[in-house]
Amino acid sequence: MMLALALMGCGGDGGEGRENGGIDPVPAPAPSATATSTPPPAPVTTTAVTQTPVATFANPWAMVFLPDGRLLVTEKAGRLRLVTTGGQVATVAGVPAVVDAGQGGLLDVALDPGFAANRRVYLSYAEAGTGGAGLAVARGTLAADGSALGEVRVIWRQDPKVDGGNHFGGRMAFAADGRLFVTAGERQKGAPAQDLSQTLGKIIRIETDGSIPADNPFAGQAGAKAEIWSYGHRNPYGLVFAGNGQLFESEMGPEGGDEFNLIERGRDYGWPAVSEGNQYGGAPIPRHATDNRYAAPLVSWTPVIAPGGMIQYRGSRFVDWEGDVVLAGLTAQGLIRVRLSGRTASEVARIPLGTRIREVEQGPDGAIWVLGDGAGGRLIRLDPA
């Protein structure tokens, strides 16, 4: 089924005409010769998309394209699916046991930067343990036929494990140097996000084998977890490196105050001391502007968009989108485009899709693929209308 959806956007025309004349004086005056150059029209921003449903899943959470064009899709209950762009779905064996409760379960999936040679796949998920559940990251090797993960081992665990089933985070992104960054939610506990002796409410940076880079900002600091890169995060659900190496993150605020942040080494992003939202029920929280110790979001949303995954679009299929960050919106029920400009950013458009969107990825041909949320979450291909 193909559905055309209008969205907010803007475009422009540009160019100039040119006249040239000349007169031949010999042997007699000749009429003026006029040549007019008409430049091609300026590109017009893509302002509508079509939706092509491809497959349906049970509570899908994340996806990644393999080099051969197939996708790996996670389902929260603990299933990893191998999917063709034509909609054929198979199950990949070897996934670690997960805690499927609340917002926990099998979460993100990412490919090693050297996947073509080593076929390594990374999974983030909620893991049971003493005291409750906690985020974990495991690494395995995908069989040549895609049927199973082998040599699976945990390379990082959030500390401590706690009760409750919310705010796991779990997004992963690789830097250009191959280091792995992971978002770790504060498990709805608040204060631990400011405690450097714990990895609740942090973004962490590790090597692909789980070891800790010696140049991490808190490595060697007494009482601090050496893997921490930044802290003061609430429920971080989006993480992406831009083409210029900047790291961007999105996270859910409380009642209002969803955030889009530029993540920098060692910075404190303020939760729960400051927020652009309020406590549930309306009790005020001081804003970032009241205390310059805390890094303020580049963009915040009230009412909330409830951000899921996000990408930086690096194709030309969607005109005038190249370089924009595209966020999945759960409450927004569509996509949100954010335009970057140095150390600033602003929302430039929304793409309504009529359903809660958990994840977004760019396909090899520049099409955009999304995962709907929930028990009947669909894998959908988006193209310009």
From TrEMBL:
InterPro entries: 6-blade_b-propeller_TolB-like, Glc/Sorbosone_DH, Quinoprot_gluc/sorb_DH_b-prop
UniProt domain Glucose/Sorbosone dehydrogenase: residue ranges: 58-381
Pfam families, per the entry: GSDH
Region described as Disordered: 15-46
Protein's recorded name: PQQ-dependent sugar dehydrogenase
